[in-house]
Amino acid sequence: MDHLRPDRGGTGTTTRRQVLGDEHVDRAEAATTAFTRPFQEYVTEGAWGSVWSRPGLDRRTRSAVTLAALTALRAHEELPMHVRAARRHGLTEAEIAEILLHTAVYTGAPAANAAFTIAQHTLAEE
């Protein structure tokens, strides 16, 4: 990315690759256009270079929180890559199910039902 701040851009790119995998990041970078570049830089610096790179929580915990937040927001298109990331960070299928079930109590059954369906499909692909 052209305008990434060196401190957060490099860290963000490294962290993003470690969490989501090279294949996903390569696809995202290849699809970046002049129009989407500022957003990709924002995500790389902010989410990956600032937040996911902080020492306060381990990646396993961050993955659990992310699954809960994505379920609550019904961000279905983001769930598969973060289910894979959660597995990469050591969460078991049973733990992912517990996270989604726990989230249902606070966000509602429809949101969790969709998340369960997406997670089950994603886990079956592995």
- Low-pLDDT sequence parts: none
Q: H/E series, N to C?
A: HHHHHHH
Specify the biggest β-sheet. Answer: none
User: How is the quaternary structure best described?
Assistant: single chain
In percent, how much strand structure appears in the residues? under 5%
Q: What is the structure about, briefly put?
A:
It contains 7 helices and no strands. With 126 residues, the protein is an all-alpha fold.
Describe the structure.
With 126 residues, this protein is mostly helical. The protein has two domains: 6-51, no CATH class; 59-125, AhpD-like, CATH 1.20.1290.10. The protein has helices at 6-20, 22-31, 37-51, 59-73, 79-88, 93-107, 109-125. Helix 4 packs antiparallel against helix 5, helix 4 crosses helix 6 and helix 5 (79-88) crosses helix 7 (109-125). The model has no long low-confidence stretch (mean pLDDT 93). It is an enzyme of class 4 (lyase). This is 4-carboxymuconolactone decarboxylase. It comes from Actinophytocola glycyrrhizae. It holds the Pfam family CMD.
